[in-house]
Every structure is written in C-alpha cells, then in structure tokens.
Design a protein that fits this description.
homodimer, alpha/beta, Rossmann fold, 6-phosphogluconate dehydrogenase C-terminal fold, 2 domains, six-stranded parallel sheet, 12 helices, 9 strands, about 50% helix, about 15% strand, NAD(P)-bd_dom_sf (chains A, B)
C-alpha cells in the first residue's frame, strides 16, 4: 500500500495506472501533473487524480510512488525536473515502450537517485490516446516487463513487481537490450509497417475508393496505424537501429513471398503460408511462463 | 424465395450462406456437395445442408440457385463439372476473392451457360476455416461486390442483389478489373505482408521468445496470417500481377518511413505518422454509399 502516487503524464497509460491502483486500494492519494494544464484539470474532473500539481517536481513531492508516463522523448527533461524531489524511499517507474534510451535519460537526469528507478514497460495500450480513455482494467492480465540495471535497488524491483501484480499484470524481467530487440520485432516494426501500408494506400489516386471497400481484415491489420503520432515518433526514433534491422529481415521475407508469387510455384507458396498460418494459429497473447 | 440451393463447397463461406438463407427463409432446401465426403457429411449433421449430394453435378440438379464456394483455383473444374446441370432459370454465383480469373474459368467451364453466372465477392470471412465455423450472421452488414460482365443477364444481377440484400448484406457492382485492383490493395497485399512479417519473426533464432512477448497490437496485425493456406495460395496466385504492383507501392512507402527514421528528422516522422493516423482514425468499415 502506498500513501501517495506522483503521476507525471495524465494520459491513457498514466491515467489507467492511477485508476487501477485506486481500484485495488493500493494507493491513498494521487497527485498528478501533465504538461498541458487542461489535461491535468480533466484528469482531476474524471477522478483519475485527486490533486493537480502545478509542476512535475511538486507532483513528486511527498510521494512514495512515482510513475512517469510521458512520450519517451520527454523522459530526460522529466527526470531532470523531478530529480531534486526524489528521495531514497521512493519507487520511481516509467511505462515507456523503449528501455535503452529511457535508462540513458534516467542516468543523465536522475544521477545519484538512479537506484530508485525501475524501468518498466507494460504491454498494453489502445489506439486512442488521452485521459478520457483511461481504464482501470487496461493492465489486467497484461504483461509488464521490468528491465533493472546494475544500480537498481533489488528491493525496488520487488516493490515494482508487487505493484504491477497487485493490479493484475504479469511481471517478467529482461535486460534493456533484450527488451528493445524483442519489441522492435513484435511491436515497433508492425507499427512502422502499418503506417507505411496505410500511407501507400491513401496516397494512391484511387486511395479513397480503395478504403471504401476495405473490410474486417484491413480493419485489424491497420488498427495500430491510428496510434498517437508523438508517442510513436519517439518510440521509433529511440529504437531506430533495432527497428531498421528488423525491417530488413521483414523485407527479405517479403521478397521471398513475392518470389514465390512471381515463380507461379503454387505448392511452395501454400507450404510457406501453411507454416506461417500454423505459427499464428498456435500463438496466444502473453503465452509466457510464470512470473520471474 | 428459392426452392433449392445447390451448394458446391460446404466450408465457412458456403455454409454461412446456406445458414443465412435458411434463417431469412429465402430457400426451402439446400443440397450440398464438398470434395471431401466427410465435410459434406459434417455439413449435414450441423444442419447447414439438408441433402448430401454425391457429386457437384447432382448438387446442382433441380436447384434454382447455385453457390460455388471453393478455393478460386478450383473454379474451372467446378464450372466444368456442373455445366450440364445448369439451366437458363438458374442463378449461379461464386464467393471468390478474385474476379478476373474466376470469370475466365467460368467462360471456359460454363461456355453457353455463362449468362446464368453472376460473379460475387462477399467482403467477409474469419481466420478459421471449415463448416464448424459457419455462421448465419457472417454476411450481415457486410459488403458484397458483384462484377457482372457483358453476357450476364440483367435479371440475374437483380436476383443476385435481392438474395444478398435479403441476408443483410450491402451490394455494389464494379468491373472485374476494378475489383481485383481494389482488393489487391486492401486485402491481398495485407495478407501477403502479414504472412511475410510473421515468417520473418518466426524464423529468427530468438523468434519463439519474441512471440512470447507479443501483445494486442501484434495480435490484431497478424490475425490474417492465420488464414487458410489453400484459399490464400489461390487468391494470391490468381491476382499476382496486381498484388506485386501493390507490394511495390508499399515497399516505396516503407522505404520513405525508414529514411525518416535514418535521418533522425523527428518532426517529419511525426507529420508522416499524423497523416496516416488521421486517415485510419476516420476510416469506417464499409463506409460506402447506397447500393448500386
């Protein structure tokens, strides 16, 4: 049980965390700050936060739990803004989809308070942004990856595990590099592809007519193309080397499928699709083992 | 109201059509045939068809409505098999995702009975195949594209429109070429990409570990990768020129996004994502106008 959550960034991810903690009775009070005062005000109106703080530093002051839920590109300035409010008793976490760059930002921003920080990435989201869509159940049953580094206090990793488990998430740990490689492959690249695909359709002369005829397959395939531009600008930029590497692997695979089409080898094409279809049919979201 | 539906291919698409017609009381009796006797038997057990026919020709005999719901690559042999059972009073349709090749197959297979045939493509489906998944509501609210040709009887196009409207679908007509271009862009290419992407992940040494961590974005993006291999082998092969053309357009768009990443131009990347995100947010499935 925490006394006070200091929430920096009262959007979908941060707001959902606050609501989940309140529902699980894991926090007594939430003090929130967003860069935009109207967002902070809206979060208060919606009962997501109890008190609106006029700055990130004041949101942190007096908290025993801090969650930073800003686009990853704003991490360093956020860490710098709150550094003088961090105490040794605080647990500080983020929710960023990239970890290597956030950890570097924390090193530079938090300096001697780095041990309080447990890098965290909950594998959850919606294609709609904003505190209006905050949802106490967003993290229920979802995976959360913690990527502690050498300086991270072990007791803080334990506390972080308890918080996320307490709101129904499944926790596992990875190295930051393993995390960023994994999510370049299964999350960041799909977003890049969905952006490029939708752009490729929309910019054709007949694009509008094409879109009129698109069905349920298109709907699901491109759902992530509606994602928040600022959030995904930061994620793709932060992890761009690994994303570009994965994109190369994808291009090679696409070229192989194109070659099967061009060669009219129907049996080879069917075999290739059958292999993929089997992988995807057997896949289950979050089919991970027990929490670490 | 039809007396008898002759159903060739008692799978997901054909079975759902039979169930929908029965539910709407648009048919008195369904006589079904599938290449695999066990499928035909199962369709009968499930009440999808009333009578199991031992051949495609016998399934057609006595019918006033015929639906061919086989992988598009099997169209020609199916048309040939039923040709001598087709009368001038029959309305014959297919459900194939490609139209140019099916029409060619009908020309060769049906010959002087071609005027009875109304090429049809209902924009509906599931990532699971088989009569077990047949669903009377599969076509409700979905679009159905009819692609009549010069020889198609106008009265048959009207009857086809009535049948599909009668089970809750929205009907529009296009030329076969316009259809195949459109669906290469919004359906066939997404399948090819989803196959290639999933293959690219699964064949990496860490592929299994990657898949363990994949979340809801991956789930929706790759749903169509679980599609039926034989069905998609035929669709991609039948429409391969247009699909390869669309794939080239997609590759160019992907290259542009990669270049934005590589150049570290965060603002340009955000602008590009914002444009796409807006298109996708505003898109509605089946946002077509009134039926033609």
């Amino acid at each position: 049980m925490f006394e006070q959550l200091g929430l920096i960034g009262c959007g979908l991810m941060g707001g959902s965390f606050a609501l989940a903690l309140k529902r699980a009775k894991l926090v007594k009070r939430v003090v929130g700050y967003s860069k935009s005062p109207s967002t902070t005000e809206r979060a208060k109106q919606l009962g997501v936060i109890d008190v609106a703080a006029p700055s990130a530093l004041l949101a942190v002051s007096g908290a025993d739990l801090v969650l930073i839920a800003v686009p990853v590109g704003a991490s360093e300035q956020t860490f710098k803004a709150i550094r003088h409010g961090i105490t040794d008793q605080m647990l500080v976490m983020d929710v960023g989809s990239t970890k290597g760059d956030v950890i570097e930002a924390a090193r530079r921003g938090l300096q001697d308070q780095l041990s309080s920080f447990v890098p965290a990435h909950p594998i959850a989201g919606k294609e709609v942004a904003g505190v209006e869509h905050a949802d106490a159940g967003l993290y229920t049953g979802r995976q959360v990856v913690l990527t502690p580094i050498k300086t991270t206090l072990r007791s803080n990793v334990q506390r972080a595990t308890q918080v996320w488990s307490g709101i129904g998430a499944k926790v596992r740990t990875m190295t930051p590099d393993e995390h960023d490689t994994t999510f370049a492959a299964v999350s960041h690249l799909p977003h890049l592809i969905a952006f490029a695909f939708t752009s490729g359709i929309a910019t054709q002369p007949q694009g509008e007519r094409f879109l009129e005829m698109a069905g349920p397959g298109f709907r699901d395939f491109t759902r992530i193309a509606a994602s928040d531009p600022a959030v995904w600008r930061d994620i793709l930029m932060a992890n761009r080397e690994k994303v570009l590497l994965q994109s190369q692997t994808f291009r090679d695979a696409l070229r192989q499928f194109e070659a099967l089409l061009a060669s009219s080898d129907a049996q080879a094409l069917e075999n290739a699709i059958a292999a993929v279809s089997q992988v995807r049919s057997q896949w289950q979201p979050g089919a991970m083992g027990s929490p670490e």
